Amino acid sequence: MKILREILNRVNIINSVGDTSIQIRDIKFNSSNINENDIFIAIAGNQVDGHDYIDSAISSGAKCIVHDKNLENTKDGVTYIFVKCSREAISIIASNFYGNPSSKLNLIGVTGTNGKTTVSTLLYELFKKIGIRSGLISTVKIVIDKKVFESNHTTPDPITMNMYLNEMVKSKIDYCFMEVSSHGIHQKRINGLKFTGGIFTNLTHDHLDYHKSFEDYRDTKKSFFDNLTKDAFALTNIDDRNGNYMTQNTTALKFTYSLNSISDYKLKILDKTLDGMLLKIGDNELWTKLPGKFNAYNILSTYCVGSILGIPTQKLLEKISELDSVPGRFQFYKKNNITAIVDYAHTPDALENILKSINEINKGVNKIITVVGCGGNRDESKRPIMGEIASSLSSKVIFTSDNPRNENPDSIIEQMKRGVKSDDQKKTVSILDRKEAIKLACGLAISNDIILIAGKGHESFQEINGVKRKFDDFDVVKEILNNKK
C-alpha cells in the first residue's frame, strides 16, 4: 500500500477533490480488474475511452480516479485528481508507486526503425558474458538476469514496465537494456523513467498508419533524446541522414558511430560470409558470427556502449566475438547445402538491407528465394514498396500471408504485387497459406540456394481474423527441409 499524496509527486495536477492521504493498493487503467482501494487512471484511447468506465471502476472498489476530462458527476468517498494528461500521469504515478526503480539502476534505451531488438539483446548478452548483472526489455522477451518473461509489446505499458524494473532492482541488476518504440514515446509510456543513455540506430519508412507523416514519426523519436538528462549519453548513427538531427537539442553527452562518415567510433568490414564477418573497429580486428552489413552497425553500436561505459577494449572484443544471432534476426538453418534464413524484416529498409547483404555474399552464384508478406491493419503505403524490393533483389518471390489480422490477405498481396516491375513479374507467385509458401520455396531450392523467410521473425503465432494460431517460421522451414528428399 502506498499513500496517494506520495505517488502523485511530479504529476501535473489541475485540481483535486477529496482525501490525498488515503492508502492505494494498486494502479489500474482497465476497469475490469479493479480491486478495493485501487487507483483508476482514465485514459482516452483510439477505440475506448476510460472515462466512460469511471463508475464501473468505483463500483469495483476504486478509491481514487485520475482523469484529464471534466467530469459531470462525482461520488462521496472517492478522491478525484484532474490532471493535464492521463497518459503522462500514469507513467509518473507508476514510477513513484514502485519507488522510481529506473533511478536505482542504469537504464539504456535503444530507438530507431530497425535494429532495436538486436542491439538491446546483444548488449544484454554482452554484459552478461562480462559478468555484469543485466536485464532486458524487448519485443521478444523480458529478462531479469537469467529469468525470462513473455513480452507482448516493444515498449510495455508504464505499470508493467516499472513493475519489472522494480524486480530488477530487487535482483540487484546493474544495467537494463530496453527497446524504446515510437508508440511508447508518443503515448508517454517512458515518462517518469531516468535513462543512463540512449542509442539511435536508423530511421526509415514505418508506422505511418499511426504517425500519419514521416516528420511526426521522426520528431517523436527525437523527443526521446531531447529529454535525456545532462549526465546521460546519446549515441547516434550518423550514416543515417537523421542521425545528427536526433541529438541536436539533447543536453546529454553525445557520441557518434558510422561505417561511412567521420565519427567517434568507425567500423570497416574486411570480409563477409553467411557465417559472419571480419570487422575492424579503430585499430582492432574482430570476428563476429553475425552476417550482413546491417549487423555491422548493430555490432558497432554494441561496442560503443561498452566503450562509453568503461569496459576495457580487449574484453569487449573478446566477448562480442562470442555473441550469437538474436532469434528471428538473420537466424539461419542449413540442411543438404540449402540455407534458410528467418528474419523479422517487415519494413522496406529492413527487407532491402537483408536482401542486399545476402546478394553481396552470394555474388549472383545461386538462387535467392524470398517468402514475404505484409501485416494487416498496418501501414498500407509500404506494401508495393516491399513488393518491388523483394522481386528486384530475389531470384524468385513467393508472396504470402504475414499476420493479416482483420484484413483480407488476398488484398494485401495484391497491393504488394502492384510494386513489382514488369520485368520482374515472371519471378513472382502468390500462395495465401504461409506454410505452403515455405514448402514451395524449399521445393524450388537446390544445393547452395538461399531461402529468405521475411516479416515474422521470432513470432510464434500467426494472427488471422483476430485469432492467433501457433506458427513459427523457423520451426516450419526446419521441419520441411529435414523432410526434403
What is the count of helical runs? 16
Which whole number gives the mean pLDDT?
94
The main sheet orders its strands as: 11-10-9-12-8-13-14-15-16-17-18
The appropriate CATH architecture of the largest domain is 3-Layer(aba) Sandwich
| Poorly predicted tracts of residues | none
Shape: globular
State the share of residues found in helices, binned by percent.
Answer: 25-40%
State the CATH topology of the largest domain.
UDP-N-acetylmuramoyl-L-alanine:D-glutamate ligase
What's the assembly state of these chains?
A: single chain
Task: Summarize the topology.
Blueprint: E1 2-3, H1 4-7, E2 13-17, E3 23-24, E4 27-28, E5 39-41, H2 54-59, E6 64-67, E7 79-83, H3 86-97, E8 106-111, H4 116-130, E9 134-137, E10 141-144, E11 147-150, H5 158-170, E12 175-179, H6 182-186, E13 197-200, H7 208-211, H8 214-226, E14 233-237, H9 243-246, E15 253-258, E16 265-273, E17 276-281, E18 284-288, H10 293-308, H11 313-320, E19 331-335, E20 338-343, H12 348-362, E21 368-372, H13 382-392, E22 396-399, H14 409-417, E23 428-430, H15 434-444, E24 450-454, E25 461-464, E26 467-470, H16 473-483
Parallel strand pairs: 4-5, 5-6, 6-7, 8-12, 8-13, 9-12, 13-14, 14-15, 15-16, 20-24, 21-22, 21-24, 22-23
Antiparallel strand pairs: 1-3, 2-7, 9-10, 10-11, 16-17, 17-18, 19-20, 25-26
